[in-house]
From TrEMBL:
Source taxon at top rank: Bacteria
PANTHER family, alphabetized: C-METHYLTRANSFERASE, MAJOR FACILITATOR SUPERFAMILY TRANSPORTER
Transmembrane region(s): 74-100, 162-179, 214-235, 241-264, 276-296, 308-330, 342-360, 366-386
Protein name per Swiss-Prot or TrEMBL: MFS transporter
Keyword Transmembrane helix among UniProt keywords: yes
InterPro entries: MFS, MFS_dom, MFS_trans_sf
Compartment annotation: Cell membrane
Entry-linked SUPFAM superfamilies: MFS general substrate transporter
Lineage: Bacteria, Bacillati, Actinomycetota, Actinomycetes, Streptosporangiales
Amino acid sequence: MPGTVLVLGFVSLLTDISTEMVAAVLPLFITVGLGLSPMAFGVLDSVYQAGTVASRVGGGYVADRFARPKAVAVAGYGLGALAKLLLLPAAGVAALSAATGLDRIGKGLRTGPRDALIADAAPEGTLGRSFGVHRALDTLGALLGPVAAFYLMVAAPGNFDAVFVVAMCVAGLGVLLLIGRVDESRAAAASGTPRVTPLGVARLVAGQARVRRVLLTAAVLSALTISDAFLYLVLLEGDAISTHFFPLMFLGTGVVYLVAAVPFGRLADRFGRPRVFIAGHVMILVAYVVAGSAAGPMAAGATLALLGLYYAATDGVLPAATAAIVPASYRATVISAVQTCVALGRSLASLSFGALWTLAGPSTALWVFAAALAAALAAVSLIGGLR
């Protein structure tokens, strides 16, 4: 495994510890610490979800344009660390929105350039495994963050500033690790000349059917992929789980993802990344069927496992598949564009599923999405999917 991949994995681990520490206490900080309303939390959550979309393609394009993916990634991770500092004096919705929005902009900026660095460092035959290792370390950080926040709140009850300061320091360590231990020379050399331009990106998309299929497939399948929270709420409505165990579903899905990320990356390298990516969506389709037709702990456990396997088969495999079909000089831009399609698709899925739930109930909404996803998978198979 290339050293750059491992270092970037540990950078993401530290950053996710920091981010999830804040995410774990932010609802409590907003409603209890500041006494703001649930509506205020809804506004902040909307900013949190939408903040990455606008900056993703911009970050990827700038990284390719100037052949400096590391510099853009450092800027993105640096903004994430700065956002924690801004939480210290935050006392209202505007200040909290600014801090949350800055964190999401940082995430959008860094994601494409970071994935381009991984792709540049990894031999083509190990792209899936390399992204799997990175995503496994990233997920480990996401699991450790709430645990760290819990122990800090136990040690200093009600001291939210302590959580924010420690989170900022952990994120800062990640930035320093990225600056000191990641070599950009190979990525910069691979980019070469001429410089990337918007016209060049348009020509690439127009001239390569595979790139267009990746963008279309990512957008369509993501628009039919509902969030974990909605799926767990369906289980809760069906009495498959109780409210006491609801938070553990997220933890369980993360553990399955952590364990399966590297094996699925190896499978993608061996049998084809498009096949594994499509197989991941078959798993979430099965999760819809299980959640919609069964009840009890067995159904909840099966849904949890299928969700974790879905993430393992798609989250790192998609950028690996994208990196393999585009020139090195366009990797950050195209990977960012694909990830933007995924983010927009999932946002649309949340809105449409929520509307269907309101109009027809959770069970009907889930079966509609299952039928639509099955039809989309059949269509993707007919047109060749990501091939």
